[in-house]
Amino acid sequence: MVDKKLSGAGLRGQSAGETKLCTVGKSGSGLTYCGYDVSDLAENATFEEVAYLLFNGELPTFDQLETYKAELKPMRDLPKALKEVLQRIPADAHPMDVMRTGASFLGNLEPEVDFSQQNKAANRLLAAFPAIMTYWYRYSHEGVEIDCVSDEDTIGGHFLRLLTGKTPSELHRRVIDVSLILYAEHEFNASTFTARVCASTLSDMYSCITAAIGSLRGPLHGGANEAAMEMIQKFSSPADAKTQMAGMLERKEKIMGFGHAVYRESDPRNVIIKAWSEQLSKEFGDSSLYDISVACEEYMWDTKKLFCNADFFHASAYHFMGIPTKLFTPIFVCSRLTGWAAHVMEQRDNNRIIRPSADYIGSEPRKVTPISER
Ligand SMILES: CC(=O)SCCNC(=O)CCNC(=O)[C@H](O)C(C)(C)COP(=O)(O)OP(=O)(O)OC[C@H]1O[C@@H](n2cnc3c(N)ncnc32)[C@H](O)[C@@H]1OP(=O)(O)O
Ligand SMILES: O=C([O-])CC(=O)C(=O)O
After folding, report:
1. Model confidence over 292-343: pLDDT tens digits?
2. Which ipTM score applies to this complex?
3. Which of 73, 132, 148, 352 sees the fewest Cβ atoms within 10 Å?
4. Longest dimension (CA), the chain
C-alpha cells in the first residue's frame, strides 16, 4: 500500500493534542498503555489492573487491586428505574443503542455533579455496563428478568455469567479478560476523540461516554467486529471465502475487520486474539470458521497487503464462546469505557475547548432575495 497522506481528509497524521495514556504504531509491538506493551499486559495482567493503570497511571499492587475490585463489585447492580427503561427497549433495537441509552439514563439518575466525582462515574459505568447489556438482552430475547449481581471476581466473568446464567469456564474467563485488555485504549481513535471533544466543553462524564458510544457504533470503527462475523458466516469454506472476497473487492466493497488508519503492516492485537480464537475453535469442536478466517487473512494480505485489525479474529473468538453477534460491539464498549474515561480526565487536567477551523468551499457572499421573488 502507498504511504498515508499526512494531511487533509480525516485529519490523518495530524497531532490533535498530547496524551500520556497510549502510543499507537510507535514502539515495541506497536501499542503501549502508559508505557506497557499490550502483549505484556495481555499475558501478565487482568482487565481490572489495566483499568486501574489507565485511571491512575500505575499498575496496582495486590492490595490496591483487591481494594479496587471491592469498590467495583457493589456498583454492578442497576437501579430499578434503569431496569424499567431497559424493559421498554424492543428486542430488535441495536444493542449499541441500548448501551447509549443505558449510559445516558444512568447519568440522569446518578449525575456527575462536579469533576471530583469523575472516578466514581467512570467506575460506576465500568461496573454497570455488563448488566445494562445482558439485562436488556435476556429480558427482550428470552423474557427473563436476570439478577444483575454475581459473585464472579472479574468484570469479564461477571458479563459471561449474566449472559448465560452459568458459571463460565476458566478458558472463557481468560479470553474475555484478554479481549477487554486488547480493546481498552487506543489513543485518538474516533470514539475517544469524540469523548475528548465533548469533555473539552466541560461537559459531564456521562455525556462524554454517551457521545463516544455513538462514534464506536459505526462499522468503520467498533461495529466492524459484528460486520466481520456477518461476512465470514456467509462463506462456506476457505476456497469460497477467497472467491467471494475477490468479488467484494471487484465491487469496491470494504472488507470489515481489515485495514487501519494508523498501523501500516499489522495490528499488534490481532496475533493475540487470533491465537485465542484458534484455541477456542478446538474446544468448540469445529474449526471451520477459524479456517475460513485464516483464509481471509491470507487472501487480503496476498492481494491487497491489507491485514486483520483487532476486530477480525474477535468475531470468531466471541462466536466460539457462544456470544450472540449483536453483542460483539457492546463488549467493546465495556472495555473502551476505560480508555474514554481516562482521556476525559486527561483532557480536563489541561483543557482548552477543541474547536478546529474549516476551509470554506461554499458560495461567494450574496444577498437574500425576498421569498416572493425566488
Ligand atoms: C477497532 C477498530 O476500530 S479497527 C478499524 C475497524 N474498521 C474496519 O475494519 C472497517 C474496514 N476498514 C476500513 O474501512 C479502513 O481500513 C479504516 C476505516 C479502518 C481506515 O481507513 P483509512 O485510514 O481511510 O484507510 P487507508 O487510508 O489505509 O485506506 C486506503 C485505501 O485502502 C483500501 N482499504 C482500506 N481498508 C480496506 C478494507 N477493509 N477493505 C477494502 N479496501 C480497503 C481502500 O481502497 C482505501 O481507499 P478508499 O478509502 O479511497 O476506498
Ligand atoms: O485507532 C483507531 O483508529 C481504531 C482502533 O483500532 C481502535 O480504536 O481500537
Report:
1. 999 999 999 999 999 999 999 999 999 999 999 999 999 999 999 999 999 9
2. 0.97
3. 352
4. 77
Which region, left, alpha or beta, applies to residue 28 given φ > 0 means left and ψ of -120 to 50 means alpha?
A: left
* Active-site residue identified among 158, 172, 221, 260: 260
Alpha carbon of 221 to ligand 2 centroid (Å): 7
- Specify the ligand 1 atom closest to the Cα of 260: 19
186 in catalytic set: no
3-class state of residue 22 by DSSP: strand
**Which bound ligand lies closest to the C-alpha atom of 229?**
1
Mean pLDDT of 77-103: 98
b vs e for 13-52, b when ≥16 Cβ sit within 10 Å of the residue's Cβ?
Answer: eeeeeebebbbbeeeebbbbbbebbbbebbeebbbbbbbb
| 260 a catalytic residue | yes
Give the ligand with the smallest distance to the CA of 260: 1
Q: What is the pLDDT of residue 8?
A: 65
Q: How confident is the model at residue 13 (pLDDT cuts 50, 70, 90)?
A: confident
CA-CA-CA-CA torsion sign (274, 233, 335, 129): negative
- Cell numbers that stand for 207 in this block: 455525556
Residues 149-159 have pLDDT tens digits of 999 999 999 99
For ligand 2, the distance from its centroid to the CA atom of residue 191, given in whole angstroms, is 8
The overall average pLDDT reported for the chain is: 96
What is the DSSP code (8-state) at residue 117? G
Residue nearest to atom 42 of ligand 1 (CA): 254
pLDDT at residue number 1? 44
Atom 4 of ligand 2, nearest CA residue = 189
CA of 136 to the centre of ligand 1 (A): 32
Cβ of 225 less than 6 Å from ligand 1: no
Residue 313: C-alpha distances to residues 168, 220, 281, 316 (Å): 21, 16, 11, 6
Pocket residues for ligand 2 (CB within 6 Å)? 24, 186, 189, 261-262, 309-310
- How close is the Cα of 227 to the center of ligand 1, in Å? 14
The residue with cell 499475558 is 43
**In angstroms, what CA-CA distances link 219 with 134, 172, 235, 311, 370?**
22, 26, 19, 10, 44
Give the number of other Cβ atoms within 10 Å of residue 77's Cβ.
16
The rounded distance, in Å, linking the Cα atoms of 190 and 192 is 6
